[in-house]
Amino acid sequence: MSANDATDVTELYQEFGDERLPPGQRETSAFPVLSKSGTPQWDPETWEFTVTGAVEEELSFSWEEFRELPAVTQRQDFHCVTGWSKFDCAFTGVPFPTIAERAGVRDDAVHVMFSALDDYTTDLPLEDCLRDEVLFTWSYDGEELPADHGGPLRVVTPHKYAYKGAKWVDGIEFLTEPEPGYWERRGYSETANPWNEERYS
Ligand SMILES: Nc1nc2c(c(=O)[nH]1)N[C@H]1C(S)=C(S)[C@@H](COP(=O)(O)O)O[C@H]1N2
Ligand SMILES: [Mo]
Hints:
By secondary structure, the protein is mostly beta strands. It has 4 helices and 12 strands; from the N terminus they run ββββαββαββαββββα. Strand 5 (about 70-80) and strand 6 (about 85-95) form a beta hairpin.
């Protein structure tokens, strides 16, 4: 599937607000890079994606195995908590629910912690993750996802500020209690709904 026949999910804002552009945001055509500590190296031979915690079956995927999972292409908006939004980004990847179904989420799971190659972490309530627009993506606008934007694999969360989307993601853990991630420990919102301007906790 090419970026041109992507499924348009940009109307999801209607669940949260009246305007496509969330309050306090300005639209930009640039795609700035925001990383806490630079772009980590990775090795396709040893890269491993793990699914752990409150699941029926813990999973692990090699890079090759992950790329064999059924993928979709969506056109999404991207909202950075620092105030810029970028419309109509085409991302290709695996929806979160596909992974969750394979692992079998236990009834006592309430949150999900995402972890990444640069030791970044971010957490979200489980219900905010169980959406088809939450993608593990390796492709942006029909090209390989650039390394500084999170390649080989990152998460995108078009219904949340973008710090909820871990770049260089290499694992998810289903949690039975909320646990703050990197920015959440530093005062950013747990839920991060852009249409409510949930920037800080
Ligand atoms: N692994 C990792 N993921 C991350 C970050 C990071 O520092 N490390 N920064 C977050 C923040 S604060 C934002 S705004 C977006 C930025 O994504 P971009 O660099 O592709 O614009 O990635 C998020 N995901
Ligand atoms: Mo950010």
